[in-house]
Amino acid sequence: MKLGIWSAGPLLALALVASTAAKAGGNDYAFEAVTPEMKKGDDVIVAVRLVHKPTGNPVPDAVIFRTRIDMGPDGMADMTSPVAPVPAEQPGTYAFKTDLPMAGRYQFSLAAKVQGEQDTVQGKVILKANK
Asked: Domain YtkA-like spans what residues (predicted)?
């Protein structure tokens, strides 16, 4: 059977829609704080979970390539602390050692690459350090 241009058009459109729907984008992921509140201090371990929003599943093996922690939520964005990766306990969870020198709110900004995704996943998590 030979398909003419009019009969092939809907099949092609359906194939394009199916292939586009199968691909997720950077906005389909979110970082969440494992523990949003912690005690202030030096060498504090901050853990975040990377989640695929449509399924709610954690995303293991992402490559976190940019991190920043600052007190932007309390109007002190220039007050930053160093961030260093440390081993995490669960797949899809990413842990970091940092200093939270004073009580208040901190913004933890991250950028990651997820296997199979072209887009960079970016997120911000608000943490609270208590006395």
From this structure: 24-110
pTM, full prediction? 0.80
Residue 70: Cβ-neighbour burial (10 angstroms; 0-12, 13-18, 19+): middle
pLDDT at 23: 52
Instruction: Specify the CATH number for 24-130; select among 2.60.40.1220, 1.20.1300.10, 3.40.50.980, 2.30.30.230.
Output: 2.60.40.1220
CA–CA distances in Å: residue 29 to residues 19, 23, 117: 19, 12, 11
CB 101 within 8 A of CB 43: no
User: How sure is the predictor about 24, in pLDDT bands with cuts at 50, 70 and 90?
Assistant: low
Indicate if the pLDDT at residue 102 is higher than 80: yes
Look-up: residue for tokens 């964005």? 77
